[in-house]
Structure formats: structure tokens, C-alpha cells
Amino acid sequence: MDIVLVTTIIASLFLVIAAADPLAARLRLPYSVILACLGMLIGAAAIFFLRTDITDALNPVAEAILALPIRSNVFLYVFLPTLLFQVTLGVNPRRMLDDWVPILVLAVVAVVVATLAVGYALAWASTLPIAACLLIGAIVSTTDPSAVVGIFRSISAPRRLSRIIEGESLLNDAAAIALFGLFMGFVRLGMPDPTLSDALAQFPVLIAGGAVVGWLAARIAVWIMALFARYELALISVSVALPYLAYIGAEQSVGASGVIAVVAAGLTLNLTGPARLPPEAWANLREVWNLLAHWAGALIFILAALLIPRLLEEVRASDFILIVVVTLAAIAARAVILFGLMPLLSAVRLSPVVERPYRAAILWGGLRGAVTLALALAVTESFRVPLEAKRLVGILATGFTLFTLLVQGTTLRWVIGRLGLDRLSPLDSALSNQVIAVALQTVREDVARVSENYELTKETVRSEAKRFGERLDGAVKAAEDDAAISDRDRITLGLIALAGAERDTILARFRERAISARLSEQILSEADRLIEATRSGGRTGYQRAARKSLRYDRAFHAAVILNNRLGLSGPLARMTADRFEVLLSQRLILRDLSGFIDKRIRRIHGRRVAELLHELQTRRVERVETALEGLRLQYPGYAEELERRFIRRTALRLEAREYEAMREDGLIGSELYTSLVQDIDTRRLKAEERPKLDLAVQKAELVSQFKLFRGLDARSLRRLTRALRTRYVNEEEVIVRKDAAAKSVFFVASGAVELESANQTWRLGRGDMFGQMAILMEKPRRTEVRAIAPSTLLVLDEARFVKLLKRSASLQEAVRATAEKRGLSKEAYIIPDLVAPKA
């Protein structure tokens, strides 16, 4: 084949890709539908010119188009890894975990149900063996929801819904291709029909093996990329190699799913990359992958569409009945999941509620595309598959793909319009009138300054000012007449805007390196949760999410158990240091939001809403500072080191900004600027290193600060430090329940707790203890203790407490003071005699 002609055809395809984007926007159709139509037209035209007698001038071009090396392996090994990998880099894995149930239902359960429904429907309607029918079911079960995602985003669909659909698009290809590989082996000549036990035995191996290979490949790649951190092009090149090596390694070396390996590799890089790579390099890496995925997605669609005319050449009249069967079975299976299983999961609170109009749009938006055609092509290329099975696989997969693209794809926007999803809600419509009025008032002020600065003629300014004033008066009147926004709704909208501004501030601080890349994703996830909680629960949801962000999670409690019981302090030290840094960053960000409330929210929603938001923001800042102060009291030296590190990083950022300003002003040349920036980068690497937190040393310092233990000698203090166990409790968590056996004494290191007994309450704070009276009275506890703030407690068992009480006069005095406060007589409890400590 002439290399010049092939190169010309490929370059021409890029011109087609370039034209498809504006054409799709103009026709208001999904981009993939336009690409598929153009590809089919090119393929049909090539066949027509080869077989017609009108002219032979275009025969070389037609032959070259039809002879392009379009094979299933090209799709699966070249284009598919790129598409999957880019999607994994664009999602938020931590936020996806919050919705893992609906994502897995749509991406895995829906694929399995569609495979079985199509397979058994075909087995009933055709003479194909059940293995071939299930193979066709696996081929047509993978969806391409990218078009419907774009439309949902254009109509401001809830972010959680968009995330669920993105998660489905990421994982359903993996599930479908894994099932395809499973049933393909049974379809080959000489293989028996599959049984349920065969499928269940092989499917987990495909998934688990691919996940392990992808994770391992990504960890090695991240380690190499960290070594090349100063060389941006080098680390981007490593990222390009990663999905292909993971895919090939899983498929060829392990016999597992290459698709799962690519997904696992991408998610691993997404989670670990921001912490190990420079922010600019990470941002540029994602931009490169966006471009690669755009080209790969367009090429895979247009090249697959070139095959459609050839795949349909042997179609028969009876095949159309089977296409209808496949279509009805696939749509019915998806409907069962969306309208049967999803509401059930929502009822038992395992999934967010998805409104019926959205579920209908997702159902009609289940477009099939290039992956379905690539899998069908793989079957037609196999010489071990019976001829009739190959013919039907190609025709049925192609026919169903054409239905989804040409019928569902072209009517999807109309369906969304009929469902009312393309219209603003009354609340958003009313808000838009107010936003327009405020914006136009600001524009009028700015235009007046521009007119004065440029000394425009008065007649021109007067005539234009009159036209603009009429529009402004209309906008103000519409805003005043519209009473659809209640005060409650204004507060909700203001809090959503405030949470959005918080997210933008986080991104800005990350780009300035005021927030470490390692923790930026975690802080961004908290901001996303804040936005969604406010959308669903208003002010109550905002406050609940804000409090939840300060809670100790399950992973933290697991790290505490590892430290207390097994002596493994590494995870707890790392998580405590992370909490320190997150709280410092949150305090920095929250203090920057007051100006946003005054400058933006006040103008749209009024003074009362702004004052309420200020009050809520002040309370949130106080809670963050309380949690931060608790950590500072526990680890005083470490808090100082972190603050020093923050100052050093801020100074480096400001220094780099000054050098950049001097270069832009022409005060220094590029050579000097490069030298100065390299020196800053060297110092920044040192400043980025977080000081190590030694829990043992910090715990000893904390214990020594308790007034209760001041009478102990150094040896006893060391023994006490080793004996005390640390316990972290969240707000509203019950620490001690009534009638429980008395086995431990608690010392409050930070935070506050509330004791309740006989309708009386006491509050204890740092340096206080509780639980000692039940031990000394040798009776079950009559008091319930609950944390009223995130708190840190030091816990001592009964035997060690009694020994300590014998040695500490200050501790005995504290016990007597507690007894007097509760009105207990001296006969009600017994304090051991004081024993002088050994020398």
C-alpha cells in the first residue's frame, strides 16, 4: 500500500474529526453520532466507487480506505487503553467511593443482566447455541454514555448524577469485555456450552488479576515519574506508556482483563500522582491526556463506522427480526435496573435518589458505539468461530449499534426536552433575574469609567447609555416582581455559592503551592461533599457536612487500634500529620471567604443572608480552630514545625512570583530567570518535606503537662506514658454507658465531654479525668459520658490506675475534689494509702 496515500487518508480523517465538532454543535446532536454518520458515509462511498462504472479515477483512494489496517486488536490495544485511562484521570476516585453502589449496579449488574437477557432472548428466537447468544449479549451490553453526560452537564444536572454516569462509562467496558473474553472461549470450535459454575470460576480471576497488575504497574510508574520530577516531558512520556504496558501485561502475561488493569492503573495514578509530582507537571499531564483521548475517541468511532457497510453486506430479511429482539431485550434489561433495582436501593438508603425523568434520560441515552463494533469485529476475524455465528454476530451488533446511534442518539435531546430536564427550575429562573440585574449594574459602572477614560463623545455615550438603561430597568423590574425565592432558598443558594467559592480557593491555593498536592484532593472532596449536602439539605445539610469533615473516620480509628494493640505507629502518625495539615489549610481557606460574602453574595441575596452566612462561617472557623488547638495541645512541637514549613513555602512562592514579574517587565533576562527558578525549585523540594511526627515523644510531652501527674518521678512518668492508651472520639459519641462495668479511667487530653447522672450534668475539659469513682466505689457506672466535641482521651486500666493513685498525692486530691463536687461522702469510696516512690 502506498504510504503517501495512507498518510493522506489519515490526515484527511483528522480534517473530518475537526469538522465533526462544530457540525455536532450546529445540529445539536451528540458528537459520536456525527462521527459515526461521517464514517459510514465514507465507507459506503468507497464501496460505491469501487463497484460503479461511473468513474475509475477514485478507485485507488477507495481501495486504500477499504484496505486500512482496521482490526479488532487496533481498537482494543491502541485506542481503548487511551480512552479508559483518560477517564480515570478525570474522575474523583474518593467521591466515586461515596456512590459505589449505584455505579457498580449500572456498570456491572446492568451489564450482566443485559448479557443474560439478550442471550436467552436470542436463544429463544434463533437457532444459535446458547454460548453464541450470550457472546452477542456481552458484546451489545457495553454502553457509551459520554453523549448523555455532556447533555446532563449542559443542563446543570446534579453533580452526583453526573458522577454516577461517569463511573458507569468507566467500568462497564471492563465488565462487558471480561464477559466477552469468557464466552468467546466457549464459542470457538470444539468448546462445550458454558455452565454457571464455569462463569463464576473465571470471572473473578479476570477482575482480580487485572486489578493487581494495574496497581503494580502504576506504583512502579509513579516511582519512576517521581525520579523524573524535574523533567516534565519525561514523566508525561512514562504516563503514556503506562496504560499500554498494563493492558498487555494483564492480557498476555497473566491471562487477566487488560481493561481492568488499565482502570486500576489510572485510578492508582490519579490517587498517588498529585502527591508525588509537581502541580504544573500534573496539570499538563492531564491536558496531554485530554487531547490524546479526544483523538483516540474520534478515530475509534470513525474507523469503526467505516466497517459498518461491510459488516451489513450479508444481511437477510430474517436478521431484522433478530435485531428487533436484541434491541428490545437490551432496553428492557436496562429498564429493569433503572426502574426496578435502583428505586429499591434508594428505598434502603444504599443509593442516592435518582428522579424518574433522569432515569428515563439515562435509559434512552444508553448509546452503543465503537467498543461494541470492535468486539464484533474480533469475532468475525476468528477462524475458529463457525461461519453462521460470525455472520450473525457482525450483523446483530452492527444493527443494534446503528439503532442506538441513529434513533436514540438523534432523539436524545428531544427526549430530554420532553422530560423537562432542559428547563431551569422556578428557583433558578428567579435567581437568574437577580443575577442579571446585579451584573448589569456592575457593567454600567464599569462602562461609565471606560467612557470617561477614553473621552468618548457625549452623544455616543448618551445614546448607548439610554439603550443600556432600558435593559437594566427591565432586569431590575423582573427581579423585583419575582417572589419565587424565599429567604430559606436564598440561604441555600448563598451557601452553595460559598461552598463553590471555597472549592475555587482550594484550587488557587494548590496552584500557588500553599496547599500540598498530597492533601489537595482530600480537601477538594470535602468541598464537593459540602456543595452536595447543601443542595440536598440546605443550611442543615451544610452544617452537618462541615461537622463531619472534622470527625475522625474509620481509617483513623483503625490506625489507633494498630498503634495501641500492635505497636504500629506509622499509620497513626501519618494520619495525625495529615489532619494537622488539613486543619491548617482549612483555617487559611475559610478566612479568605469573608470577602466573597461581602462582595458577591450580599449584592445578590441581600444583607440578611450575608449576615447569616457570616455567622455560619464564623462558627465553622471556631470549630476548625478548636480542633486545631486540640492537636496543638497534644503535639506542641510538631505544630510549630508545620507552621514554620508553611511560612517557608509561602516565602518561596512569593519570591518566585517576584522573579516572574521582573522577567515580564524586562528587568531580567530568560537565562537569569531560569537560574533563579532552578534555585527556588531546589529549596522548594526541601521545604516540601513534612517533618516526621514521633508519637511516643509527643505523648510523653503531653503526659508531663497534666497537673494530675506532676508529683511523679521521671521513672514513674515513663512507665505511665507507656501504659496510657490514646482514644479519639467524635462529637456526640458515647464514651461510657450507664451500668457498664468499671474497667478504665479516662483523662481528657483535648476537647470536651459531658457527664450525665441522676438528671445532673457536668462538663469536663483538658486536664480533667472521669471513670475513677466507679472503680473506687467498686460499683457499676451510674454515669453516661458523651463527647461534645472531637476529643482525645488517654485511657488507663483499673490496675495501673490504683497503682498510680498510691504514688500521686495530686491525683488523690483530684479524686477527693471530684467526690465533693458530686456530694459523695468519704465512706462511699476508698483511696489507697499514699506510698513513697522508690528511689
From TrEMBL:
Signal peptide, first to last residue: none
CDD domains the UniProt entry points to: CAP_ED
Coiled coil: none
SMART domains: cNMP (SM00100)
UniProt subcellular location: Cell membrane
Primary site of residence: membrane
GO cellular component: plasma membrane
Bilayer disposition of the protein: Multi-pass membrane protein
Keyword field: Cell membrane, Ion transport, Membrane, Sodium, Sodium transport, Transmembrane, Transmembrane helix, Transport
Transmembrane segment boundaries: 30-49, 61-80, 100-123, 130-154, 174-191, 203-222, 254-271, 291-308, 320-341, 361-380, 392-416
GO MF annotation list: potassium:proton antiporter activity; sodium:proton antiporter activity
Gene that this sequence comes from: nhaG
GO biological process, alphabetically ordered: regulation of intracellular pH; sodium ion import across plasma membrane
Gene3D superfamilies from the UniProt entry: 6.10.140.1330, Jelly Rolls
UniProt xrefs under Pfam families: cNMP_binding, Na_H_Exchanger
PROSITE patterns: CNMP_BINDING_3
InterPro entries for this protein: Cation/H_exchanger_CPA1, Cation/H_exchanger_TM, cNMP-bd_dom, cNMP-bd_dom_sf, RmlC-like_jellyroll
Name by which UniProt lists this protein: Na(+)/H(+) antiporter NhaG
Record domain Cyclic nucleotide-binding: where: 708-822
PANTHER family: SODIUM/HYDROGEN EXCHANGER (PTHR10110), SODIUM_HYDROGEN EXCHANGER 7 (PTHR10110:SF86)
